[in-house]
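Hey team,

Filing this mostly as a record. A colleague (T.K.) asked me to run one chain through the structure pipeline before their review meeting, and I want the input and output archived in the tracker in case anyone asks later how it was produced. No errors, nothing strange. Just documentation.

Input sequence:
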Amino acid sequence: MTAPRVVHLDEHLAVVEKPAGLVVHPAPSHTGPTLVDELAEILGGGEDPERPGIVHRLDKGTSGLLVVARDDETHAALQRLVRERRVERRYLALARGRLASRTGTIDAPIGRASRRRHRMAVAGAGSREARTHFEVLEMLAAESYVEARLETGRTHQIRAHFAAIGHPLAGDATYGGEQKYGLERQFLHAHRLAFAHPATGEPLDLTSALPDDLAAGLDAARAA
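Output structure:
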């Protein structure tokens, strides 16, 4: 597993590229290194000593960009931006089948699945509103290559939403996605993060290219 890469760093915050396979912060169900461990020297802020600087997460098997704080004031400001939906988060995903429309919105509340607690489900326990906007970038023979934009940020939101409409993500065994194209995890990459810097007001708009495993999987899907 590769180390996280810092793509933007200043005295207030950092934007980092998380590799797949790395958990963001410590949890009772996880042993081993975390993003917090890897970036301990630059993280700060917040009331949870096990999650310094963390304002949003990516799943273990999801790669890509996330913003972290370096002090209490920035942590609170970033949390507010996320809560007010002023942080633009866009993902690249490969969904099974050909979507019926090139653009759309999946608007369905998400909560914990009743029988499989490691999964989320539409209308599950403790459901909260969840909206995912998408645009099909490329129609392939058996999949749709899409860009998804989060309006809300629920656990497993994109994965659960696409599974709920019958188009689970390639490689996502948890939600019914097929293990194909050499993929060993869900095809989901946080490729763009945009927001106004909470201290300076400067617009930050950062992008991340598909990592090698997903790029190879996409090429295989195109060739199928």
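Quick notes for T.K.: The chain is about 15% helix and 35% strand. The chain has one domain: 5-223.
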